[in-house]
Known about the structure:
The structure holds 2 protein chains of 2 kinds.
Chain A: H1 2-36, H2 66-98, H3 104-118, H4 122-133, E1 145-146, E2 150-153, E3 156-159, E4 161-165, H5 167-195, H6 201-218, E5 223-227, E6 230-233, E7 239-242, E8 245-247, H7 249-276, H8 279-287, H9 292-322, H10 334-346, H11 349-378
Antiparallel strand pairs in A: 1-2, 2-3, 3-8, 4-5, 6-7
Helix pairs in contact in A: 2-7, 2-10, 3-7, 4-7, 5-6, 7-9, 8-9, 9-11, 10-11
Chain B: H1 2-5, H2 14-38, H3 48-66, H4 74-83, H5 87-113, H6 132-144, H7 152-166, H8 168-171, H9 180-201, H10 217-243, H11 248-263, H12 266-280, H13 289-315, H14 318-326, H15 331-361, H16 373-381, H17 390-420
Amino acid sequence: xxxxxxxxxxxxxxxxxxxxxxxxxxxxxxxxxxxxxxxxxxxxxxxxxxxxxxxxxxxxxxxxxxxxxxxxxxxxxxxxxxxxxxxxxxxxxxxxxxxxxxxxxxxxxxxxxxxxxxxxxxxxxxxxxxxxxxxxxxxxxxxxxxxxxxxxxxxxxxxxxxxxxxxxxxxxxxxxxxxxxxxxxxxxxxxxxxxxxxxxxxxxxxxxxxxxxxxxxxxxxxxxxxxxxxxxxxxxxxxxxxxxxxxxxxxxxxxxxxxxxxxxxxxxxxxxxxxxxxxxxxxxxxxxxxxxxxxxxxxxxxxxxxxxxxxxxxxxxxxxxxxxxxxxxxxxxxxxxxxxxxxxxxxxxxxxxxxxxxxxxxxxxxxxxxxxxxxxxxxxxxx
Amino acid sequence: xxxxxxxxxxxxxxxxxxxxxxxxxxxxxxxxxxxxxxxxxxxxxxxxxxxxxxxxxxxxxxxxxxxxxxxxxxxxxxxxxxxxxxxxxxxxxxxxxxxxxxxxxxxxxxxxxxxxxxxxxxxxxxxxxxxxxxxxxxxxxxxxxxxxxxxxxxxxxxxxxxxxxxxxxxxxxxxxxxxxxxxxxxxxxxxxxxxxxxxxxxxxxxxxxxxxxxxxxxxxxxxxxxxxxxxxxxxxxxxxxxxxxxxxxxxxxxxxxxxxxxxxxxxxxxxxxxxxxxxxxxxxxxxxxxxxxxxxxxxxxxxxxxxxxxxxxxxxxxxxxxxxxxxxxxxxxxxxxxxxxxxxxxxxxxxxxxxxxxxxxxxxxxxxxxxxxxxxxxxxxxxxxxxxxxxxxxxxxxxxxxxxxxxxxxxxxxxxxxxxxxx
Lengths: 383, 423
């Protein structure tokens, strides 16, 4: 009897506590909304939003619904996260490897890079890039061309746009190339396991990856043209580039800050991963006659990646969550468009903040679930 | 290969080679230095791109001539081992050296030589460099926000008092040490709250009332992160224990709590505290904006704290639990006397890291209209009398935050090293 009480009393109390808190909050919210004449509901999502968004990946205008505004914000968040993840990975791997270099100068520069960018709040870094560094860029009419065709100006970065003809054929070719590479790899693995023959898979894969899309240009009727940004005079003193794609300075500042900041954490993960593989593994692999390349590819990297990937994904998640700081410099991400402008217009605080939080929560939990599954899969099965 | 082999030194001729090599390196360094500091191009007689590559090529040859496996000369060996193991390393070494030399003069002249600090208005800034006058004039605002100037001593006194109270643990008598946890978890936060409330907020004891809207600057960063830390720690401990509980309801409530807060960005939490939270409070109940923000950040950081503490709990060997149980200890006794003291010691570095993240997150409170350092900068930047000094402001704030965070991270690193050896 005593045991049963010990077991169930805390649980019942905990449930009661949670129910009471939620009940209290709900009743308060109900009375507050009644008093202010607000009703709860998600009907507003299909209403006309009647506000504009500066930068959007999909067609959007003020006559579209709030749901579409939400989508615009979400896509912008995903875009900035995606670009930053790519840059922070490249930088992070380079810095992480550099921290293990035998060269005193390189090792210490990398260490100082990490210490420097890690210890300044991200918001300050975003502000610095946006309000101080990017404001020092030239006006459109004075900008010099980078790589001949792109222009970095105070109003944004202008790059040529790609104009495709028969894009779908090209995409099918790319898909076919990827599928055939997978088949080739399986075949090569089979061959190696059963007959002990090695074929240069990497070389063949590259060849397939280049030749198939190339064929689509030659005989598939695909063509690609570039639309270059052209300087255009708006008024006496105001110039702008037309054509091409313009990346707004908000996006650039955000990508710079996010990737520099997160790359320090990625670098630490990479360093820990490589250091985590014991020296004996390398020596053992060399002593069974593997070449240095094979040692790296077959022994060191598989073990290091196992240590590197979980914390790095965590950093990617942090980056995605941190991208919400975009709201501070008015980059139209999910928080600014939806929890900012849309909330201001509709006044539906509870619904909108909940949707925003749930969206981030969904992204986080989905990636976390995938990561858990992946970790289980690559776990070393000890006997 | 044969062709460049004549550049390879051996032990017999290393003396000549190292002399020629160091002369070549010296020439390349002199070229770069004169280029950077004196703005004269010594090699202007060379065509186009060769003049920029000239020091690099010269330095590479020089380093290549000095490279030998074992020379017998200590200094040379040290050099070769650390910065000159192969051509690629030598190239990177030279590139880093040259870029440091190149970057030094402009940044030095901007920050120091061409900078202004005298005067107290924008007109004093005549140089081409930084305008530190701006920082000097706004310094009090950056530190104390809109808090009235004549009352700044109140903030300072409150901070000194709180810090002094925090050190009480060091001087506590041996027989009182068992109450230390009680002191830090319950008594200290209450005292600190009272000190800050009565001294900084004022309103009684003849002190003038200063509303929280006027608080700001770096002192607000400290206040927010201090309260969040002392509140999130006990809360995190509860949820960490809850997550490891055998009782399913408690376990799943804890998991939900932790995963929820860890899955959302802080900025949405702050939005929640400012626009959604008032809706959930009783009708005529008013809660200050600062208090709402502190509650929101505490709830948020508690989830991270819980995960850190859970890590400590998990890393204890099962034997500790079994031993405690076999002595007949109950759940609470076991945790208070055996498990938590060991686990908490293990997680001190992790907690320090969480706190570091917390300090770095405090500038975010600017989205709900509380102006701490970053917020004050944004305010100062738009002041019509002081337009165009964003760079100075952000560099100043970055340096301050960097010093705070770097000191903390070094401290946590030392703690980690200290507790690592004990097991």
